[in-house]
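To assess whether ligand presence alters the predicted conformation, the chain was also submitted together with zinc ion. Input:
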Amino acid sequence: MPLIRKDQTVIVRGLVGFECDRCKKRFGGGDAVEMDEMFYWHHECGYGSAWGDGATVDVTLCQGCAHELFAGLAGGPSTPGEPTLDDAGKDGGHGGN
Ligand SMILES: [Zn+2]
């Protein structure tokens, strides 16, 4: 049976920018650093939530605002090469020579 083909146009929707909910600045897709470092939190609340029963919460922050708000709460940035939980136990879990 011969193959039957048809040309189709496919629409791809991608993230090209955002507006920070705090400082209201807009960042575009040309700024790769801001796009990569944006903070986005989406939460669908359950019963008894402080946000409201069944509420949906979305927060979008630029990296500057996210850092100002959360730096004091974060456990500290990890750096490449820093030991991780995956590394624990490689030496038998005794952590020494
Ligand atoms: Zn901001």
